[in-house]
Amino acid sequence: MKIIDEFGSDIGLRIFNEVIQKQAKIVGDEIKKSMPKNLSLLDSGVKAYFDFMENAGADVQIYDKKDESATFIIKKCPFYDALLNIDVNCGYLQSEICSNLTIPAIESILKTIDRRFKVETKLIRKSFEDICLEKIYLENNSD
After folding, report:
1. Are 116 and 93 in contact (CB under 8 A)?
2. What's the pLDDT at 6?
3. Structurally, how many domains does the chain consist of?
4. 71 lies in which domain range?
């Protein structure tokens, strides 16, 4: 948070976003190296999503899968837990952090596979007992 104190929130968020983009490229390239070649484009995105979230410590499962999209249920989220560990327990603030930092990071990783990948938040947890729902799809194939 020193960045925000020093430069302000707009510049701080821009710097965080630049770091996220660079890290996503590194993570995405590593995930792509281990990707089986015979997967469909959507299945490659599903695998990349799972690899990233599970490596981060999330409890994630497929909630719904169609030909053109996959929706995941996240029961345990390490990003949410990290915010609780620093006493950020306001559901609105956590939602904003997730929407502006975590989701773009996941989308950036998926875009290393195909630039058309999008991540859409369907439900963001507001308490420890809640769940998150996130949907991935290819931009020209959204439903």
Report:
1. no
2. 74
3. 1
4. 2-141
